[in-house]
Amino acid sequence: MRLLSLTLDGFKSFAQPTTIEFRPGMTGIIGPNGSGKSNIIEAIRWVLGEQSAKTLRGNKMADVIFNGSEDRAPLNRALVSIAFDNSDHYLNSDFSELKITRKLYRNGDSEYLINGQQVRLRDIVDLFVDSGVGRESFSVISQGRIAEIFNGKSADRRAIIETAAGVSKYKQNKATAEKRLDTTRENLNRVNDIVAELEDQLEPLAEQSALAQDYLEQKGKFDLLDKTRTVRELDSSQATLKQVIAKQEKAQTMAAEYDEQAKAAAQTLSQQQAQQKRLLVVKDELQQKILDATTIIGKLNSKQSLSSVRLEQRENEKQRLLARQNELKQQLAATEQALLQQDQAIADQQQAIKEHQKALNEAKSQSAEQRAQQLAQQLESMRDQQVDLMQKQAAAHNQQTFLQRSHEQALNQYQQHSDELKNVQERLEKAQQNADQQAQLVIAAQKEQQAKTQQLDQEKAQQAQLQTQYEQVQQSWYQALGDVRSCQNRVKNYQAMAADYTGYYSGVQNVLKQRRQFNGLYGPVSELIKVPQAYTTALETVLGGQLQHLVVATQNDGKQIINYLVRQRGGRATILPLDTLRGGYQPRNLARLRTLPGFVGRASELIQYDPRFQVVIDHLLSNAIVADNLDHATLLAKEGQHQVRVITLDGQLINTSGAMTGGASRSQRIGLLSQQQMVEKMKQELQVQQQRSSELEQKVSQLEQARRSNQQTLAALQNETAQANQKLSEAKANQQLADSQLVELKRQLKALDYQANAAGNPDQFAQEMAAAKQNEQQLADELTQLKVTMEKIKQQQNDLQNNASAQLEQLHEMQQWLAVARERLRQAKEQRAELQTRQENANEQLASLEQQLQALDHDDQLQADDRQTTAAALAEAQQQLHDAQDQLKASDEKLTTLNDQLQDANEQNDRLQALQRAAIEDLSGIKSQRARLEMLIDQGLNRLSETYSMTLADARQELSPLSDDELNRQLKLLKRGLDELGPVNTGAIQEYERISERYDFLSGQKADLEKARDQLKETMDAMDEQVKTRFIKTFKEVSAAFTETFATIFEGGQAKLVLTDPDDVLTSGVDIMAQPPGKRNQQLSLLSGGEKALTAIALLFAILKVRPVPFAILDEPEAALDEVNVDRFAKYLSRFGEDGPQFIVITHRKGTMMNANVLYGVTMQESGVSKMVSVDVEEALNSDDRN
Question: pLDDT (tens digit, 9 = 90+) per residue, 830-842?
């Protein structure tokens, strides 16, 4: 085999791919220090499988990857490939040429390849093992390896000989065998322990297995009979269940019928109640109609009365106006007559003045005769005028008489009007009092109506509230009755369980069922203590089966019970005699435990019991304490030094031994104490439910009575409200009538007051009478003056006849007369104007009277129409009132009938509800019976399923033909036999088989292990002999070769190898004894440094001579030699020639270089990056000489 080439890529300082080709002979690698020469040796070690980064001068394996330089970035991969010529198959491989490649990535991944095929590191190590070529072989001599030879221990030098002897494989195999031997010994020891343990188990298991087989045989017979009895009980229960189901269906049908009847009755009752409400509404409406009709009738009657009063008043007013009209017409006629007379008088006066003026003028111009003639004419005219004045005087006198008579009539009328006015005033005062009284009555009626209406609304609201409360309480009552029934059934079930002592062991059950036979029996522990509910779980857990221990007075009582159980084969029981029982252990540090957190109390202090049973409580609970939770319980147990049993409130137990019992399951079994508390709790709950049911029943009765009372009160209030409404309407009608009468009387009073004032006005009468007298006096004066004038004219005539001088005086008189006549004419005109004013006033009064009369006629027509309309409306209202009263009477009759029907319906409803409750109770009892049967069936099926893992159909396939009596007898016998066997470990059969099988198997394993142990020992002994033989042989050969090589290299002297312990070749070290020329024979450690190095090199060459290798790589082996020894080293290397091993030598020494066949130079022209260059040997040597 020959080394062909080495390729480096990214390995340490070789950043670029670099390939070194090796030729036969010696190849020298030179270069300055730090250029990377040693990296080549490390690359060869690395590619051959080196795993130590420290050996490769690094801290971690990733340090072999090029880490970058100033000008180059770090690489992520290192690759080294080494190629061999294996045509002689030096290495155990079919390939004639091998290329080993190793890759390492910076992330830690690595690859190994042989000829491009990925392999394991183990494959490469195995390829080079015992070949002399490899990372740990002597074919790769790194720096310091020479020093290790002469500075190392003898055991280290032995390793070199072993490597040369090729015993590494043997040593590895021996190490493996030793490990296997150790494992085998451990397994054998373990198997021996198990076998010994199994041997201890086998004998008792054999007995238990035989007992279990006997038990299973009897148990099989018992199971067959028990299954038969269970199937028969199931058949009986199912047959009974069918009957119960039929009864339940019948009861359900009956309950459904009662329910339907009750619903129908309730519906009928509801309909009747609705009809009652409607009739009450109709009654209220009819009462309102009656009230409205009564109000309308009152108003119409009042209106008619008022209309009659007003009609009478209008007639009186009309008569008064007609009388006044006649008076005014008479006055107007008199005034018109007076006015005509006055006009005539004025005209006459004006004519007289005109004539007198003419006469005066003529007198002034006429002669005496003419004057006398004129005077005669005047006199004649005055006589006519005198007649007229006398007539006027008579008319004025008549006018005075008329005025006086009219005044007297007015006075009489005034007196009459005054009396009537006084009467009207008195009536007005009474009407005002009546109106005030009616207003007070209206207010009182309104208050009464509002109070009744408010009471009615309150009663209606109370009725609705009572109805709601009645329905709610009735529903709650029914539900409470169901709860009472359910609670009674549960109490009965638990009482039945208690009477049957369900939950007790069979022996305890049998004794308790016959407890009257045992006078000294107090009962089980569970009956003798009372435990608060908070501590029930804790006490049930800590006492466990001890709750079923029977407490008796004396030991003889206990013997009596045990003898009874033995005779009856009734099971087993534990007896606690009070006369012989001892109390338990009292904890010493209880006082300290009381101060710790979580301490609830001593179990014996948390329960109640009769002092007679103190010794029983001490016996059972003397060392038991209760903690609140498991954390505190562990602390209490530790502080109590495990002298107390600690139980938590939720039932987790720590025993005095330190064992802990705890946990929970989905379905917790109800303990004996819990059963007792459950019964008491249910009894209390039953009392509460019964009390609640009674209270609800009483409340239902009270509410029913309150409803009826409310209905009566409501009916009475409705009547009272109707009466109050009618009374209010009547009061309002009376008030309206009184107000109308008051208004009319006030109007009458005002009219009468006006008439009285008009009739009794004395000023107007005096004024008119004065005017009439003045007019009469004026006429009398005019008549007198006229007489005087006539006398004067007569005198004038006489004078004219007597003398002419009297003519002037006559003219003067005529002038005076004209002046007086003119004054009288003026007065007459004034009187005429006054008369004309009086005429106008009278006309106006007549026109006003005519209008008033027309208005009265129009009012009479309207009032006649209104009276007719009012009469029709009154008749219609009276008819409506009569109809409403008839309807109200009919409605009252219907209400009376309906109330009777309602009473009957309520009684029917109560009866049906009672029947329904009874049916429900019967149905509940049937359901309970069905539930018990179904429970028994379920228990039977569960018993078949859980105990025998079969269905009812499967159980029917294998039944005993025995009769029921014989079957029960056989079951009792088998039960006694099984009880006599006592607790049996049925698993002992399988356990015995399993243990036997395991024992046999482990016994075989033990034999195999012993055989393997012996074989391993034999193998190791054989390997030791082989190693010893090969080592001795190689040692002798190497020692001989070393002696020869030493003498050749040193050119004299002698050396040899010696064993440090010749008696123990397998562990003996190797020492080197050397005697260079001219020196004494001495150990290697006493030689100089150069002698040591050359001696170590001689030993390496001796090994290569004994165990030739294809190549050897040396890293500066001659570094410690002087020039003379370097020449000796180089000369010895040259002796191998090209046919010997390949030598790859890293060197700085000239002598070595001179003997090299090929030189490679390693340079670091670029900082941190190594490169290979070809080197001219002569130039290198010359350069070295110059240096």
Answer: 777 877 787 777 7
End-to-end CA distance of the chain: 38
> Which 3-state string (H, E, C) describes 44-77?
HHHHCCCCCCCCCCCCCHHHHECCCCCCCCCCCE
- Total residues belonging to the chain: 1187
d(CA 1089, CA 1122): 10
Average pLDDT over residues 470-490: 76
> How would you classify the pairing of strands 1054-1059 and 110-114?
unpaired
pLDDT tens-digit profile of 743-757?
776 666 666 665 555
User: What's the sign of the alpha-carbon dihedral 364, 370, 376, 381?
Assistant: negative
Closest C-alpha to 575, from 598, 541, 548:
548
Which candidate, 1014, 1148, 881, places its Cα nearest to that of 177?
Answer: 1014
Q: Does residue 879 contact residue 296 with C-beta atoms inside 8 Å?
A: no
Q: How far apart are CA 133 and CA 1142, in angstroms?
A: 12
Residue 1109 has φ and ψ, to the nearest 5°, of -125, 155
pTM greater than the 0.90 cutoff: no
Q: Which residues pair with 1058 in a beta bridge?
A: 1071
Report the DSSP beta bridge partners of residue 646: 625, 654
**Amino acid letter at 46?**
W
The pLDDT tens digits for 1006-1028 are: 787 778 778 877 877 777 777 77
DSSP tag of 814: H
The rounded distance, in Å, linking the Cα atoms of 295 and 314 is 28
CB 2 within 8 A of CB 85: yes
pLDDT digit string, tens, across residues 1163-1179: 888 888 888 887 655 55
> What is the rounded average pLDDT of the residues 24-30?
85
Task: Tell me the C-alpha to C-alpha distance, in Å, between residue 21 and each of 348, 790, 1174.
Answer: 196, 210, 11
- Predicted pLDDT at 667: 44
Q: What's the rounded Cα separation, in Å, for the pair 896 and 1063?
A: 142
How many CA atoms are closer than 13 Å to the CA of 365, on its beta-carbon side? 5
* Residue position matching structure tokens 């007005």: 428
What is the distance between the alpha carbons of residues 199 and 821, in angstroms, rounded to a whole number?
Answer: 194
Element (DSSP H or E) covering residue 899: helix 806-942
Burial of 760 (0-12, 13-18, 19+ CB in 10 A): middle
d(CA 247, CA 927): 10
Tokens representing 830? 């004034």
* Beta strands at 77-85 and 2-9: parallel, antiparallel or unpaired: antiparallel
